[in-house]
Amino acid sequence: MQKQSVGAVSYNQQRVQFTFTFLIMYNCYVCNCCCDTIRQFRIHLQRHRDSAELRVPLVCRQDRCKSSYTTLFNFLRHIQSHHMTDCETEGTECTLANTSECMNMGDDGEHDMPISCVMPEVKDKHDFLLEMQTEGVSLVAGLRANSSIPYSVIPGLMEHFNNMAGSLTSFIETEVLDGLSSVGVDRQAIDKVSTTLDEKLQYCRKPFDFFSSRYRIDSFFADHPSMSKPEPVHFVPRLESHCGTSGFVYDQFQYVSVKKTLSNLLQSSSYVEALLQDKCRPGVLLSFSDGSRYREHYLFGNCSKLSLMLQLFYDGLGVTNPLRSQGSAHNVGVFYYTVRNLPQEFNSCFANVHLLALSYTHDIALYGFEPILDKFIAEIKELSTVGFEGVFPILGKCTVYASLCQVTCDNLALNSLLGFVESFSGSYFCTICYATKADIQTKFREEYFSIRSVAEYNKDLESLVSVKAGKNHYRGVKYNCKLNEIPGFHVTDNWSLDIMHTLLEGVIIVELGCILHGLCVLDKCLSLPDINKAFSVLWGKITVDKTHKPVEITGILEPGLVITPSMKAVQSWALLKYLPLAVGKCVPSKNKHWEFLLHLSHMVDLIFAPAFTEEMAIYLKDVISDHLSRFRDLYSSEHVRLRPKHHFLVHLPSIVLKSGPLVGMSCMPYELKNSFFKRCAHIVCNFTNICRTLAHRHQQQSMFAQLSNTHIRNVVTVGKHYYEYVHTLPYCDSLCEKLDVEATEQVAISKSLHVATMEYKQGHFVVLCIDNNTGFPTFGKIISFVSLAGDDCWHVVLEHMPTEDFAHHFHSYEVTTVQPCVFMVHRLRDLADHHPLYCHSLLLGSSKRQYLRLPYHIF
């Protein structure tokens, strides 16, 4: 949007004084339409948003301003705060002294360019009514998308708006009639004007009457083209008696059409662009499409078809306080899915986790998964064979196919959904192999186990008929999973394990308990108060991961027991990452417990790597085998045994080769989605049919997310910034060379910048690249962010920080500062990794060292 000033000039020959009237013109960057006021500009942009045409970020270009925002509210608030002139708010006449930017005056009093008079276009009354209705629709859509607002308050709120509009209309009508009476207009004419005003203003008395009830609001949004409305699906009817009367009860679950959801998503050009991004790097495993299962799939491996890969997730969710009576009566089972064609940074977005079905958990226990999966399987069969046609942005007219590529859940839910035994205290608990309780204590490589196959699975199903009484499974198989009916999918080929529950909430917590017991109780290198104090000091300095601070450890139990209190997944990960930096200098080198901690850190860094090579996967196999052997040698006893989650580690290298990096099947994005339903249930407090309520509220939020493009994660937003001449900056030479600018030009400077939920600040460190000679990462310290005056692209200015060595004892890289400073200019997308890093300073002896801890392995 550009602000332009035009107007009419009156010239007085006795005294040179220019007085002119002008209009502020705001140009829409979507359709290039001009609006002369902020109000009209806001209504115009809201219409684009309601049509899903509004692209993010919204970049302000008023007076060379480069601020950008992801929400329309923040963008318009910025315009009103910083770019609305006094002429627009107080009147239309102003003098030349107050509008020096409107025209250039020469010394002789002549202006450089002609100024023409532009009169505002007179709008029809229906345009103003449409503007009011658009405001109302945007308001209600935003309120219904908010999980903290009950729907029952919205009709009353709209009624208050109607009452205010009616009162304001009556006030205006009264003032007009009183004005006519005061100037001597006869009574007959005033009565005629009054009658005319009543007729003309009748629509203004209740402009939001179409939102006067909950039914009208629901009906309006149910017919919205971007709305994927949930549909109730009945289970098998059952006979139930109540108060002496018997009758059939039709329990139901809520189902959202996959076809409708995908069709709505593909109407967004930004979504299609993200979908078609080239994610391929030869020899590198970046996503599911780089694994062997993708190449072997009959649909996904067909390059002539546009096929979408769906990853299914299931979990049980408690929506009420579990400590209260009947706390589990309203627990629900949630089915989500994501589109694996998107880059991983997009699938971590809240809006890109889509709802498939909601059902009461007691209904699932009663009827099983089959009724829900039958509905899903029928739709997937159609989508994988027939597909759906449409005209989509960028793609044009084409047919799109979709099928199931993977199922990911926590360990218990995965076994339950795929039809395997749900007990992990016995044998045959693994969905990938036939591991026994005794084998996992001595065998630490996958080749030592017999892998499940389709043929062996069918034999197990046949043997279920002849199992002994009292046993409900044979070699871990309980029943034939309905998902096996999907072409190209079988539960034995579902190479997927959740590293969030396996590592962050399992292996790491158990092994850290053993390590801290060894360091504090056995070797007495540390004490519990020292550890808590060290983390308190560290988190007072740290500039990243501020919200992931581990809770204060209250007790160190015997080996084999987890540390107390319990922590969230991100907190246990932060504890492992920063423990070497926090207390490393207090622990002597070569301590066996400390060496095991460093080996655990090394293994976790490899497992959470966002990219793999085949050589890395083979190396990871050796690291896992070595780690399990070390754990057995250090801590194994009668009371300390390897757990099933330890065994799951042996399958991770093969999963990488078959299904891509392990972070792509983590349950963390899905678990975060559960917070929406918990908050909604707490707000509505109506459990008559909580599944229906939650499903409709979620789809309302999903529709609003599609219209506002919140599913796009690569949006760069910047707030406060200022302009400086290039020659005044210490990194002038680097800017001139990299950006090809002159030293006399001006550039925009900012000290902070946001990309999705990632915040970059001055003083953060980032990974630039990997040195091919040493294999060490090259780091840079963020100095500022720079953008050219006529460009929306932002570059990051970095101070080069040479890497001295990898400090094994601290599991971090040591960096140094060089003088004079070496500056570099990079684009954010060219960085080797997108995570900002914290540089921790340690005083070792008489020298001060600087260390950087990577969140995972980068190559």
Describe the protein in words.
The protein is α+β, with helices and mostly antiparallel strands. The protein folds into six domains: 3-122, no CATH class; 128-222; 246-419 and 481-491 and 694-707, no CATH class; 430-477, no CATH class; 499-664, no CATH class; 716-852, SH3 type barrels (Roll). 37% of the residues lie in helices and 19% in strands. The chain contains 26 helices and 28 strands. Strands 7-10-13-12-11-15-14 form a seven-stranded mixed beta sheet, sandwiched between helices. Strands 17, 18, 21, 22, 23 and 26 form a six-stranded antiparallel beta sheet that branches. Strand 8 and strand 9 form a beta hairpin. Helix 18 packs across helix 19 (569-583) and helix 21 packs antiparallel against helix 23. Residues 1-23 and 90-123 have low confidence and may be disordered.
